[in-house]
Amino acid sequence: MGKSIHEAVQMTNLSFSYAGAGGVPTLERVNLTVQTGEFLGLVGPNGGGKTTLLKLVLGLLLPDTGTVRVFGEPPGKARKQVGYVPQFADVDRSFPITVLDVVVMGRLGITRFLGNYQPSDYTAAQRAMEQVGVWELRKQRLGDLSEGQRQRVLIARALTSKPRLLVLDEPTASVDSTAEAAISSLLMRLQGSITILMVSHDIELLNSHSDRLVFVERHVLPIPKGQMLFTGRFRPREK
User: Fold this and answer.
1) Which position has the higher pLDDT, 192 or 54?
2) Where are the domains of the chain?
3) Strand 82-85 relative to strand 165-169: parallel, antiparallel, unpaired?
4) Which CATH architecture has domain 2-236?
5) Spatial distance between the Cα atoms of 30 and 220, rounded to a whole number of angstroms
6) Which of 53, 116, 169, 199 sits most deeply, having the most CB atoms within 10 A of its CB?
7) What pTM was computed for the model?
8) SS3 163
């Protein structure tokens, strides 16, 4: 194991193309280490590879070259230690599923599922929902919620598995100011107790919460705080 105990995510010489090896790479020669307990913010232009990078961490994609390790293991083996909140969640508003039903789904793969959830699963779901501030919505249908409420429900679902790593893809996109403030407050409470990897265009949010920022556009570049320019999209300053 060695030093991997202290590394939540380790990418080494990683390249990936949706066209396969030999295609134009979406990510190229990426070397990135995220320490356990660190809050890493990812910024960059649309199409630059930020979501692709998250999917490689989650094991939803496999690199063409190089390696990914999550807590010292291939992403597929570390999946139970990771909570994921996607950028968009398609919801059939007519589907009769309650908020509690959605959140407790985060226990799938964690608990022994024999047709019914266990009391401990509902206890974990309640704890996560109270943490995010949606417990009072537990009996409502997911499709009846606002965008901000749904986003907090999805964060609660990710936290229900008690992950060591929380992966967030634009968690404050399309939410109102009240929901954004609630998510910001939650991130502040979580900081240091869990490793967080978050993609966002909200630079103010990332600057106030993250320990470190990186810029993703095919390559991954470190961004010292206070050394970022806005020129239609975010770019690190030239040295």
Assistant:
1) 54
2) 2-236
3) parallel
4) 3-Layer(aba) Sandwich (3.40)
5) 6
6) 53
7) 0.88
8) coil
DSSP 25-62: PSEEEEEEEEETT-EEEEE--TTSSHHHHHHHHHTSS-
DSSP string, 165-180: EEEEESTTTT--HHHH
State the pLDDT at residue 22. Answer: 74
Q: Is 63 helix (H, G, I), strand (E, B) or coil?
A: coil
pLDDT tens for 199-218 read 998 888 888 889 999 999 99
Whether the per-residue pLDDT at 237 is higher than 70: the answer is no
Residue type, 58: L
Query: Which of 31-45, 59-73, 219-233 is the least confident region?
Result: 219-233
Q: Residue count of the chain, please give it.
A: 239
Q: What is the C-alpha to C-alpha distance for residues 42 and 223, in angstroms, rounded to an integer?
A: 10
- 24, two tokens: 């134009």
Output the pLDDT for position 232: 38
